[in-house]
Design goal:
Elements (H helix, E strand, L loop, with lengths): L3 E4 L8 H11 L8 H6 L12 E5 L5 E8 L12 H4 L2 E9 L8 H15 L4 E4 L10 E2 L3 H9 L3 E12 L2 H10 L4 E4 L5 H11 L3 H11 L7 E5 L5 E8 L19 E9 L8 H15 L4 E7 L2 H5 L4 E12 L3
Parallel strand pairs: 4-5, 11-12
Antiparallel strand pairs: 1-2, 2-3, 3-4, 5-13, 6-13, 7-12, 7-13, 8-9, 9-10, 10-11
Helix pairs in contact: 6-9
């Protein structure tokens, strides 16, 4: 069967509902995409260009497959010294083909078109996922077909990343909070923005500073950020948590949007001088307590390799992903 491959046109409405229907018929039950997450990762992404969406239609005009490319374009808002590398990264944020159109080379065609488009936009290295405003930190590891697809196209498999799930149990998080030394924790309040940004500029001037500022600019709540203070009252750490109904869907809630009992946790970061004091695990406990006080029973921590660390707070692996990448000129 012949397919028409085209990029979404600037100024024209995206076929959002068609893409959502295709996505949810193509991916497993673990990764059902909501309209809110789709919009967050397209029109609400400062780097989004409609041409990033690549559409494949059959002879009747039915959407048979799609891909989403991502490159970072919001350079004026990024303060990390890794910016020259960031802008050369090309990401296959998503690629999907309806089951009835598989084994016809359509996935290969979409990937080839996506890679060519990324090169046109300055990419010199390709990544499966991992992008700003991402869906996945890699290829879902339970999908042998997806892993084989990327490997067959020259991608090297790398680190395994995991999502972790756990209960919000006071008997777990209260001792963790109490065991931290020389620090205090509280949720963010109006007026804490400057101190938070100063900490992020010092310790995490790249992606976490960018993501956190964008989160607040687009309606995320400061009270959902747990802050770590040293004895002088200076912010030395943070943890972002997410609740159902928030304006920003946190990565820990990407695939839990219909579940009102679950929150999301992460990212978490500490300044180097705070390490070894129990502050890292302590701020995890603070985030757990915050979510529990708002009526939630469980939480998911996304995109990490720190299984043993978070296991001390009762979290266990749930979803797993494997990083996959290759140079553009391989």
């Amino acid at each position: 069967m012949d397919f028409e491959i085209d990029h979404a046109a600037p100024g024209a409405p995206l076929p959002d509902l068609e893409i959502l229907e295709l996505w949810n018929a193509s991916f497993g039950p673990e990764f059902q995409l909501s309209e809110a997450l789709w919009l967050q990762n397209t029109t609400l992404d400062p780097s989004f260009n409609p041409a990033d969406i690549i559409l494949a239609r059959d002879e009747t005009g039915k959407l048979a497959g799609f891909a989403q490319a991502k490159v970072f374009r919001d350079t004026a808002s990024y303060s990390g010294d890794d910016l020259p590398k960031i802008v050369r990264r090309g990401h296959i944020a998503a690629i999907a083909v309806l089951p009835e159109y598989r084994r016809q080379g359509l996935g290969q065609t979409l990937l080839t078109e996506t890679e060519a488009y990324l090169v046109e936009n300055g990419a010199n290295y390709f990544y499966a996922g991992e992008n700003f405003r991402h869906y996945f930190p890699g290829v879902p590891k339970h999908s042998a077909e997806a892993l084989a697809f990327f490997q067959a196209n020259g991608y090297s498999l790398g680190v395994v990343e995991v999502d972790l799930d756990g209960p919000l149990d006071p008997e777990v998080y209260e001792p963790i909070i109490d065991s931290a030394r020389q620090v205090t924790f509280r949720q963010g309040q109006p007026g804490d923005e400057t101190a938070l940004y100063e900490f992020l500029k010092r310790s995490f001037p790249g992606r976490w500073f960018y993501d956190t500022r964008l989160y607040l600019e687009q309606g995320g709540l400061l009270e959902d950020i747990s802050l770590v203070f040293d004895h002088a009252g200076i912010v030395q750490g943070f943890l972002v948590s997410y609740r159902p109904g928030g304006k920003i869907i946190g990565p820990g809630r990407f695939w839990l949007t219909g579940n009102r009992e679950w929150g999301g946790i992460g990212p978490l970061g500490l300044s180097p001088e705070m390490r070894g004091l129990g502050a890292g695990l302590g701020v995890v406990g603070a985030g757990m307590r915050h979510l529990h006080e708002h009526g939630l029973k469980f939480a998911r921590i996304d995109w990490t390799t720190l299984v043993d660390f978070y296991g001390k707070a009762g979290f266990k692996p749930s979803l797993t992903y494997q990083r996959a990448s290759k140079p553009a000129l391989s």
